[in-house]
Amino acid sequence: MTEKNIHHTPVMLQEVLNSLPANPKIIVDWTLWHGWHTSNMLKLFPTIQKLYWFDLDPNIFKETKEKLRPEFGNQIDFQNKSYTEIQSVLWDEKADFLLVDLWVNLEHFKDWNRGFSTNIDGKLDMRFDNTNGKSAYDIVNTYPVPELTKIFTDYAEFTPKKSEEIAKKIVETRKNKKVETTFQLKFLLNELGLGQKACAVIFQAFRIETNKEIDNVKMLLGEIPNVLSVWWRCGIITFHSLEDRLVKQWFKTLAETWNFWLVYKKAVQPTYTEIQQNRPSRSAKYRVIEKII
Ligand SMILES: C[S@@+](CC[C@H](N)C(=O)[O-])C[C@H]1O[C@@H](n2cnc3c(N)ncnc32)[C@H](O)[C@@H]1O
Fold it and tell me: What beta strand segments (E) does the chain contain?
């Protein structure tokens, strides 16, 4: 039931640590997971007084809170919330460094119960917060053809024709029997001639829709000017081009029309050695912006 050889390793850890300015006091880690970036920042920068940590996943929240509390409990303010709720948490403070790591935690892929992976048969779910909201099962089994088509064109970047073909196949199949598991969805896609890579892209598109990932990233980007202190920085790691395009464009707008500058002109990418040691890191891009007034 579990996918072997998947271990989540923090991505571009050294690059993130190098991008922090000296003596930060208030940090926000918007996507903590098991806290690799966070615990290293806390060890390296003794000036940090408070670290606000967000993670939407209730299981990860519980585990990581227990793990980090003995050493860092006085400094970390644990928030089992979406990063989109930052204003309600940081309402009278500003942050010196904001970190966002938008990858999917690879532990999610190992868990058959979460339905993120094309390689493990399990129930279709794909929610980061699996206690709330519509799951991938609801989307696959209720969205009409035009809405499904839009997901595949917008998030999988398939042509409208191919997207509609996939949408019709799903709707046709579910008339007889609901699509309940990841393998049922994968086999249905295989019948259209879609191979492993295309299936993974379709799964990713359902995950983006299930978690409203693009809307959330847009909200998060909009919050940066409000929650960042002057002379301090925000760093964002993305893992696919849809997100990176949004970050790149917004950082450019901030640098051209607001009081920000791009700390790195181009996105920082993992080194050859990191990619050899951690294959999933190969698509990561890290962009950093600083607020100057
Ligand atoms: C790649 S992991 C972060 C890894 C972390 N930087 C590390 O290396 O230890 C991304 C995390 O973001 C969380 N997440 C996804 N969407 C979120 C949201 N809207 N708000 C808060 N956390 C979210 C996921 O549950 C996952 O644990």
Answer: 26-29, 50-54, 76-79, 95-101, 228-238, 260-262, 285-291
Q: What is the DSSP letter of 232?
A: E
What is the SS3 assignment for 51?
Answer: strand
Q: Which atom of ligand 1 is nearest to the CA of 216?
A: 19
pLDDT digits (tens, 9 = 90+) for 72-110: 888 888 888 888 888 888 778 888 999 999 977 777 777
Instruction: Please write the tens of the pLDDT for every residue from 161-192.
Output: 999 999 999 999 999 999 999 999 999 999 99
Evaluate whether residue 19 is within a structural domain. yes
CA distance 260 to 250: 11
- 99 and 112 share a domain? no
Say how many domains are in the chain: 2
- The pair of structure tokens assigned to 189 is 């896609």
Q: Which of the listed residues 8, 56, 107 should we mutate to test ligand 1's pocket, taking the one with most ligand atoms within 8 A of CB?
A: 56
Q: How far apart are CA 141 and CA 157, in angstroms?
A: 21
Domain end, chosen from 212, 241, 274, is at 212
Give me ligand 1 centre to Cα 69, in Å.
Answer: 18
What's the CA-to-centroid distance between 53 and ligand 1, angstroms? 10
Say yes or no: CB of residue 83 within 6 Å of ligand 1: yes
Ligand 1 pocket: which of 105, 110, 204, 238 to mutate (most atoms <8 Å of CB)? 105
Domain boundary among 212, 246, 263: 212
Query: Residue 165: inside a domain, yes or no?
Result: yes
Q: Whose CA is nearest to atom 8 of ligand 1?
A: 10
| Range of the structural domain that residue 55 is part of | 13-107+214-291
Q: Decide if 6 is inside a domain.
A: no
Q: pTM for the whole thing?
A: 0.90
On whether both 201 and 228 belong to a single domain, the answer is no
Q: Can you tell me whether residue 98 is helix, strand or coil?
A: strand
